[in-house]
Amino acid sequence: MVSGQQGWAGDSNPPRTAGPRSQKASSLVRPYAVTGGRTAPRMKFAMEALVSSVTSEYQDISLLSPEYQAIIQLTRNVRSVAEISALLRQPLGVVRVLIADMASEGLIRVHQPALDAGKPDLNLLERVLSGLRRL
Question: pTM (2 decimals)?
Answer without folding.
Answer: 0.62
